[in-house]
Amino acid sequence: MPHLARRLFVLPPDLEGAAHSWLEHGERTPRAPRFASSVVLLRDSPTGLETWLGYRPGESPLGVVAFPGGSLDASDDDPVGWLGPPPQHWAEQMGTDDVGLARRHVVGAVRELFEETGVLLAGPDLSSTVEATSTAEWMKAREAVAVQEKSFTEILAKRGLSIRTDLLKPLVNWLSPDFAHRRFNTRYFAATVPMNQQPTLLESKGVWGQWVCATKVVAERDTTALGDEVGQENTVGLTLGQLMVPGSEIMLEKMAKANGCIAYLSYKRTPHVYQPRLVDENGALMLEVEAAKTVAGEPQRER
C-alpha cells in the first residue's frame, strides 16, 4: 500500500445542502451507491499528458466537470464479443471476488466512453480496432445507446465487433461521500485513443468537452480558468475543486507528474477504495481524503 497522506478539498457547491442536512439530522444510513465506470482518456503532447474532460449537467456524483463515465446498465450483463484479458483477470486487478461485477464494470466503461465521446475500444480481432467513428452513422448508434433504444452489445454484434479489454488499464476505485444524495461506487480505467478515432460530443447531450493539459489545469487550480472556459451557469467563476470531485483532481495531479502516457499507464496500482469524508475544518465544511502522496516526500498542500 502506498504511503497515504491526509488531504483536504473544498466542498463542491452541489454537495453543500446534503452536507448540512446530514449534520443537522445526525448521521443516518448512507444511500446505497450505484456502480459506475469512468474512463480517463490520455494522449501525449509537447506540454505533457492531456486528458479529455466533459461538462456534466445536473448533480453528477462524478462532478460538474469529469472524465467520461456513468452508472452501469442492465445491458452490461448481455453477452458480448470479448477480446483481451478475461473477466477473471479483471476481478483480480480490481481486488474483487465478484467476477460478474468486474465484467460489468469493463463493459460499462467501454459503453460509456463510446456513448459520451464516440471513442470505441472494439475491433474484429486483437490486431485491429474500428476506425473513423466520427461519422453520422456512428453518431446515430451513440444516440440509440444513450436513449436505450438499442443496447451497446447489439450495436457491436451487428457489426461483428468485440470489445478490446486489452486497451483498458485499471486505475482506482472511488466511493461517493456517505452524506451525498446520489452516490457512485466508481471504477476508473485509463485508455489511449485508438488509431484514426477522435473524441466528439454526443449531439443531443454534449455541452462542452475537450482535451486539456493536466499540468496546466493543475497549475491553474486556484483560478477560475477552466470553469470560465466551460462557460456554464454552474461553472463560471468556480475553481477546480468546486468543479471536480476529489478523486478526479487527484488523478489530474498524478497525470501532471507523469512522464507521458506509457509511464502513467504502466504504474503499478494497488486495489484500494478511496472515499472522501466530511470534516469541519476551523468552521468550514471540507472533504478529507486519505490518498497516496503525489510525489514521495512532497509536502501536501491543504486545500
Structure, described:
This protein is α+β, with helices and mostly antiparallel strands. Helix content is 29%, strand content 24%. The strands form three sheets. Strands 2, 3, 4, 5, 9, 10, 11 and 12 form an eight-stranded mixed beta sheet that branches. Strands 1-14-13 form a three-stranded antiparallel beta sheet, with no helix packed on it. A hairpin with a 2-residue loop joins β13 (277-281) and β14. α2 packs across α3 and α3 crosses α4. The longest helix has 19 residues, at 99-117. The radius of gyration is 19 Å and the shape is globular. The chain starts with a strand and ends in an 11-residue tail after the last strand.
Task: Outline the fold blueprint.
Layout: E1 4-10, H1 16-24, E2 34-43, E3 50-55, E4 65-66, E5 69-71, E6 82-83, H2 87-94, H3 99-117, E7 122-123, H4 136-146, H5 152-158, E8 162-164, E9 169-175, E10 184-192, E11 209-213, H6 214-219, H7 225-230, H8 240-243, H9 246-257, H10 261-266, E12 273-274, E13 277-281, E14 284-292
Parallel strand pairs: 2-10, 6-8, 9-12
Antiparallel strand pairs: 1-14, 2-3, 2-5, 3-4, 3-11, 7-8, 9-10, 13-14
Helix pairs in contact: 2-3, 3-4
